Amino acid sequence: MTENHHNNGTALRVAIIGTGGIANVHAEALRQQPGVELAVAVDIDAARAEAFAATWGITRTAASLAEAVIGGGLDLVAICTPPSSHFPLALEALSLGLHAVLEKPPALSLHQMKELEIAEAASTGSLSCVFQHRFGSGAQRLAGLQQSGALGKQLVGTCNTLWFRDQPYFDIPWRGLWDVEGGGPTMGHGIHQFDLLLHLWGPWSEVTAFAGKLARRTDTEDASAAVVRFESGAIATVINSVISPRETSYLRLDYENATVELEHLYGYSDSNWKVTAAPGQDAVVGLWAQGEDAPSGHPAQYAAIISSLKGGGQAPVSISDAYATMELAAAIYASSVGGTTIARGSIDEASPFFTRMDGHLEPWKQEEALNA
């Protein structure tokens, strides 16, 4: 791979691996970035790769990453395949010295996350995890206001991902399986919203949770609810559901000086935020109303990734950054299955939840068998 490729004024050349639904979101986001070339569409299904390439004006297709790099010149790989292949493809990209962007969840277990950290340290390539809610102007403004002290202490939070997925959604062969998706809405849906919560409120310290299968035929949970305590002392509830008829993604953060709320579905702009000042703290609202309105989403995160890579820096949301988010997901499962409070850092090599989110116990699958 020509490592200095992106420093010599030529375009950053990108391969998109997996040409299903989410790949179109990546292609559109990448197309909006200056100095980026969509170079190869990679899919084991040749017809699908060709159709995708035709849609996005990509001149070359390949059946594998190994085939895509023949001839060299690739810089970045966008991994848009089903979750179970994220880990092996990321390892392959790193072994080739390529940078890679991983769709969520970046891996299926904390063990795989640690393996990726090790592989990244040994590679000239780097990994970046898609957590696009961090990149809207609202989240960035809020982070700035927090840091300035204008909001006062973090107190109480609510983080709800209440979505609706019908049974046919789960009937697709790879959905709802522990060894393919890694989990249910805690891993695959709510993770974006609670990643934003953790990004804003810093390290979590412990969690108590319940999860269950309430309405869908699937191996994983279809809903979970957790109470999270942060190192700061703040407390938040986190609910993840795919069985809620009125869909919403809702974040409410209560600080000493203001309540900040975000309500949206799959992405937000400034109009989705609301700031309510505490009595005598009206100045906070004026501070909020400053700056440009940049929506969250893949284009916002890719702008940050491309800018970092072209500048020779580490792309945002590294594997290490994403670890705390994945660790909270694992802890929600461990707490709900074991009926205990889980401290951050306690799911290590000795824990069954380190290598699989359900601790290899398939709890809700068993529950269904018992109730049958």
Tell me about this structure.
- This protein has an 8-stranded mixed beta sheet with strand order 13-12-11-7-10-9-8-14.
- It is 35% helix and 24% strand.
- The chain is globular and about 60 Å long.
- It has 372 residues and is an alpha/beta fold.
- The chain folds into 2 domains: 3-132 and 300-318, Rossmann fold; 136-295 and 325-371, 2-Layer Sandwich (Dihydrodipicolinate Reductase, domain 2).
- It contains 14 helices and 14 strands.
Strand content: 15-25%
Mean residue pLDDT: 95
- Per CATH, the class of the largest domain reads Alpha Beta
Order of SSEs: EHEHEHEHEHEHEHHHHEEEEEEHHHEH
* CATH architecture field of the largest domain: 2-Layer Sandwich
CATH H-tier superfamily of the largest domain: Dihydrodipicolinate Reductase, domain 2
The count of strands amounts to 14
Number of helices: 14
Trace the largest sheet across and list its strands.
Answer: 13-12-11-7-10-9-8-14
CATH topology grouping of the largest domain: Dihydrodipicolinate Reductase, domain 2
Cα-to-Cα separation, first versus last residue: 55 Å
Q: Can you tell me the overall shape?
A: globular
Query: Radius of gyration, rounded?
Result: 21 Å
Largest sheet: 8 strands, mixed
Unreliable stretches covering 5 or more consecutive residues: 1-7
User: Which range best describes the helical content: under 10%, 10-25%, 25-40%, 40-55%, 55-70% or over 70%?
Assistant: 25-40%
Compute the number of structural domains: 2
Structural class: alpha/beta
